[in-house]
Amino acid sequence: MFTYAPSSTRRPAVYMTRRDFAELSGRANALEHTAVGQSLQAELMRAIMAPDGSTRSFVRLGSKVAYEDLESGAIRRLTLCLPEDASLDDMRLSVLTPVGAALIGATAGQVLEYVVGGGPARRLRILEVKNEQ
Fold first, then answer.
1. 94: helix, coil or strand?
2. Beta-strand relationship, 122-130 and 111-114
3. CATH of the structural domain 14-51+58-130, one choice from 3.40.1000.20, 3.40.50.300, 2.40.50.100, 3.10.50.30
4. Could you tell me if 11 and 2 are in contact, meaning their C-beta atoms sit under 8 angstroms apart?
5. Which residue blocks in 65-126 are alpha helix, DSSP H?
6. Angle at CA 113, nearest 5°, toward 65 and 39?
7. What is the distance between the alpha carbons of residues 114 and 100, in angstroms, rounded to a whole number?
8. Where in the chain are the domains?
9. Whole-number Å distance between alpha carbons of 129 and 108
């Protein structure tokens, strides 16, 4: 399943468990008038469904992710979570942030773009995804 971004560049496939899809659909709909809500809705619409117990390595709620900020070269390691579980001190990032919405469903090696506060697009490369089975 491929869709095209406004810039006419092909966007990488995203995967999602049915459980994450159900959890995130309601949250994205509630935020549909915000940039992050729209971004999350776009990811949900193009997601390829995977069984909840899938061993495929892709970013899901609870994943430990390492990524490189391609602008600064900084490498960040975090756990993707729901907003109520987010904690900067514990490196737990909400899926309802621009970076979190970009990460959900992606796989190691993918380069993703995201926008913060109407600024220029930023890019990151996913280095590693770890999921507890």
1. strand
2. antiparallel
3. 3.10.50.30
4. yes
5. 98-103
6. 90
7. 9
8. 14-51+58-130
9. 6
Its pTM stands at 0.84
Short-list 87, 105, 96, 80, CA closest to 27? 96
One-letter amino acid at 133 equals Q
Q: What is the pLDDT along the chain (133 residues), one digit of tens a residue?
A: 222 233 334 567 789 999 999 999 998 888 888 888 888 888 888 899 998 888 889 999 999 999 999 999 999 999 999 999 999 999 999 999 989 989 999 999 999 998 888 889 999 999 999 998 6
CA–CA separation, 93 vs 45, rounded Å?
A: 22
Q: Whats the size of the chain, residue-wise? A: 133
Q: Are 21 and 47 in contact (CB under 8 A)?
A: yes
- Between the two ends of the chain, the Cα-to-Cα distance in Å is 26
